[in-house]
Amino acid sequence: MLETNAAMLHLYLDAGSRLGLARFTERGADILRYVQNCLADPVDGGWWGSQQADPAYYATASHDGRRKVTPPEVSRVLYADWNATMVGSALKAAAVFKDDGLRDFALKSFERVLLACYRPGHGVAHYFDGEPRVRGLFADQMAMTSAALDAHDLTGNVVYEMMAQELAQYAIRTMWDAEAGGFFDCAADASEPAVGLMRRRLKPFAVNCDAVRTLRRLAGASGANDFRVVAERTLDAMAPLALGQGPLAAHYVLAVRAGALR
Q1: Which residue range(s) make up the domain with 84?
Q2: pLDDT digits (tens, 9 = 90+) for 164-188
């Protein structure tokens, strides 16, 4: 799964740099090698969503043994939020390994997925499989906002910052709870028929906490204090829920800590 590998890549590289332990950085390099060899589209940019599960293939002990077996198929779907996470992880890896080619590939990938999934005034779709599908999900807007800010931090290109503002404003306009604070997981007019839990608009705790950090970043980059106000109200809305979240409470702690370190 692209999502898992992208998150673990960032974690290992962060641990390696903060703790000064080469074994974590090396494990990050291993993850990056897999992602770039198996999930990346080397021609147009972007990363496919997953490689099919195949226990026999993955249990093969040696590289030579795997070369004799047909690799599992890769799902040729570009997920907006997973690609956004991978953009951030790839840019971090490019800095750690001083790899300009990876940096350029990450920016190219961000632009490909953005162009495929974005529609003015309607944010980004959840995935692209030849057509953009499933609009109006909060996690997608925040993930792509964060990736746009990563691109802006690296390049200074104001277009990336403007896109981050556009996506955040769309989320605030369609998913923000003005009375109680916090964001619902989807817009009231999400583009696909509601199925399962999507029949109910919920407030995902971890995604809301992560959004606090993204909106603070956006406020700093844009100078628009409205984003900071929304961020702090979101944090206040999540505070009463934190003690009951188990390990997910870490998302709240990180949001609080990031605010204290500003």
Answers
A1: 1-119
A2: 999 999 999 999 999 999 999 999 8
